[in-house]
Amino acid sequence: MKIITVVGARPQFIKAAVVSRAFNQHKNINELIIHTGQHYDQNMSDIFFEEMSIPKPNFYLKVGGKTHGSMTGQMLEKIEEVLLQEKPHLVLVYGDTNSTISGALAAAKLHIPVAHVEAGLRSFNMSMPEEINRILTDKISNVLFCPSETSKNNLLLEGTNTKKIEVVGDVMYDAVIYYLRKAVPSNNIKSLISKNYFLATIHRAENTDNEINLSNIFEALREISKLENIILPLHPRTKKFIDTYNIDTQGITLIEPVGYYDMLLLLNNSNGVFTDSGGLQKEAYFLSKPCITLRGETEWTETVDSGCNFICGTDKHKIIASYEKNKTINFDFTKNLYGNGDAGVLIAEKILNSYS
Ligand code: UD1
Ligand code: UDP
């Protein structure tokens, strides 16, 4: 059977690496990859394909660095062209980015079945572009691969046909287990990982594009950096807004975005995490690190219920108080919140059984 996978943003390369490897175990699956070009810098894209041995994309659409409408529209048009030419049995999309909704919509309109990995996640905050993307993608998908029972329940509450839903666990758990064993530090991080530090990432639009929110976050981090080193691989979006708003980052170690190996090692050697990333909240849990989330809510509610993730939004006092509190807690990371690390294998098997 022929599958077309649509990816475009950093976390999708990591997720696709897991599932592509599982597809490779099946002779009768022929996977073609469309890279929309949403992320395009070497350290936001190519490095993941190289390190994680992801098959080279068969189609590169070069649609990046644009507004939402323009990006989504151009992707839709270009993905449709590929689908008309290749006539796949199934289109596979990941997560909640503009590449996700474009891939799903192009396929659904051509009546090509769509499978959505990371289905059913909800923040219940419709001002997030990701929430729009994921709800619409779920609505038009034929197979919904959920990472958890919570995500399955979200879909059921929206009236989704239960036959479409498969709880398989989180492919990012598979990724952590598999790639941490392979990871060796690059020269860029060798001297960093021997120190004591918290790791931070910030890229969410509601934080970067809002001067007050971004300033609050950096005020809190600057304050904490007087007590603890903070290493922050800087997303290009955030870099742009730090310059625009002239934000003071003194005391915080800013580095370029890193590849997945370096990221896993930076995380594994850290004391904990400050982040507004979806993926990193879970990776922190998988590697037994407390997480201080710089958002007002999360889709990954199990990490909060387990007591290992503090939801702080951009409230400076809450961020600092959570950092202080984390030092006093004995965290319990023993529960398997997101499956058994075999989500990729389960996804490949289900697709093969249903569509060939
Ligand atoms: C996108 C996703 C977000 C995901 C994130 C992962 C949407 C709506 N958002 O957000 O859900 O969490 O990716 O990182 O799809 N840029 C570069 N080089 C790059 C990539 C981006 O310079 O390689 C800059 C450009 O100025 C671009 C900006 O970053 O305009 C934002 O990129 P974009 O892909 O639109 O959104 P992200 O914030 O990365
Ligand atoms: N990541 C990475 N290098 C970095 C920052 C993040 O490899 O410099 C990884 C991170 O470990 C996680 C994924 O990228 O696996 C998360 O992507 P991001 O935070 O950009 O997006 P989100 O998960 O919020 O959609």
Task: Give a written overview of the molecule.
The protein is α/β, with parallel strands linked by helices and 356 residues long. The chain folds into two domains: 2-170 and 339-355, 3-Layer(aba) Sandwich (Rossmann fold); 198-326, Rossmann fold (3-Layer(aba) Sandwich). Helices cover 46% and strands 15% of the residues. The protein has helices spanning 10-23, 46-51, 68-86, 98-109, 129-139, 149-157, 171-182, 187-190, 205-208, 211-224, 236-245, 260-268, 278-286, 301-305, 316-326, 343-355, and strands at 2-7, 30-35, 59-60, 90-94, 114-117, 143-146, 165-167, 197-201, 229-233, 253-255, 273-275, 291-293, 309-311. It has a seven-stranded parallel sheet with strand order 3-2-1-4-5-6-7, sandwiched between helices. The chain has a six-stranded parallel sheet with strand order 10-9-8-11-12-13, sandwiched between helices. Strand 2 (30-35), helix 2 (46-51) and strand 3 (59-60) form a beta-alpha-beta unit. 49% of the residues are buried. Uridine-5'-diphosphate is lined by residues 10-11, 14, 201, 203, 233, 257-260, 263, 277-280, 283. Uridine-diphosphate-N-acetylglucosamine binds at residues 9-11, 38-41, 44, 64-65, 96-98, 129-130, 203, 205, 236-237, 240.
CATH topology of the largest domain: Rossmann fold
The fourth-level CATH homologous superfamily of the largest domain is Glycogen Phosphorylase B
First-residue to last-residue Cα separation = 6 Å
Using the coordinates above, name the CATH class of the largest domain: Alpha Beta
Number of helices: 16
Question: Helicity level, as a percent range?
Answer: 40-55%
Mean pLDDT across residues: 97
Would you count the extended β strands for me? 13
Output the structural class.
alpha/beta
In total, the number of domains comes to 2
Spell out the helices and strands N to C: EHEHEHEHEHEHEHHEHHEHEHEHEHEHH
Low-confidence stretches: none
Shape descriptor reads: globular
Which strand order does the major sheet show? 3-2-1-4-5-6-7
CATH architecture of the largest domain: 3-Layer(aba) Sandwich
Q: Which small compounds were modeled alongside the protein?
A: uridine-diphosphate-N-acetylglucosamine, uridine-5'-diphosphate
